[in-house]
Amino acid sequence: MRERIILHNITRKFEDGGIQRTILDQLNLSVSEGELVAVMGPSGSGKSTFLSIAGALLEPTSGEVLLDGESIIGKDKQALSNMRLHKIGFIFQSANLLPYLKIEEQLLFVAKQGGMENAQATGRARGLLQKLGLSQRSQAYPDKLSGGERQRVAIARALMNDPAVLLADEPTASLDANRGVDVVRMIADEVKEQGKSAIMVTHDDRVLPLCDRVLYLEDGRLV
Fold first, then answer.
1. What strand order describes the sheet that includes 70-71?
2. Of 90, 113, 107, 88, which is closest to residue 164 (Cα–Cα)?
3. What residues pair up with 221 in beta bridges, in sequence order?
4. Comparing C-alpha atoms, which of 165, 186, 162, 168 is closest to residue 107?
């Protein structure tokens, strides 16, 4: 199986009161297609920095990140924006839906940003909503949805442009046990069915059995 995201010898340092601190220390991670990897660690261990680098939001001090075989290092802002739009699907702790757009419109907005034709975008949006059990809610606004429904919309939105990699940041934090497990099961199913790679930062022990690997961020490295 090909590895859709590779982080090789990633180091990230910053200055704090004249002292140079190392957050990530020659960190390595490869995630194969069809694989969901959970990353755990205490607050302040560097999980947010790690996820920002994996998502092409932050450049490492040294090391290399490959998304579907393409390096993010040294690219300009527009090129990185295009990579995030087409290669990466983000799922956040809060669904972060636009309050003035209906559910189907949330997905069409992302497709338009990615240059997808209207007819193709409409068909894909409706297919994803049907698959995630949201067809009956497609014309609802976010404030009319439950927490679990909003996170399902967030999954559909993340998948809209058919990214190689899914990055999920505490996707169950605002959900009860049953809804949290359901949301991660949907992510895992999509990853396996579509041959994507996924990394999920989580503190939720309940969802770990749904993951292929569980790694811990300690002293700037994944173990």
1. 19-32, 3-16, 62-67, 70-71
2. 88
3. 218
4. 162
CA 110 to mean position of chain CA atoms: 15
- Nearest Cα residue to 188 out of 70, 91, 57, 122: 91
| 50-82 burial code (b ≥16 CB/10 A, e <16) | bbbbbbbbebbeebebbbbeeebeeeeeeebee
Under 8 Å between Cβ of 95 and 151: yes
What DSSP character marks residue 142? G
First to last CA, the chain: 22
Long-range residue pairs from 40-45, CB within 8 A, at least 24 positions apart, any chain: 40/201, 40/202, 40/203, 40/214, 40/215, 40/216, 40/217, 41/216, 41/217, 41/218, 45/217, 45/218
Give 21's strand partners. 14
Tokens found for residue 63: 């090391």
Residue with tokens 């014309």: 139
pTM over 0.85: yes
Give the model confidence (pLDDT) of 87-131 as tens digits: 999 998 888 899 999 999 999 999 999 999 999 999 999 999 999
Structural domains of the chain, ranges and CATH numbers in brackets: 3-98+148-222 (3.40.50.300)
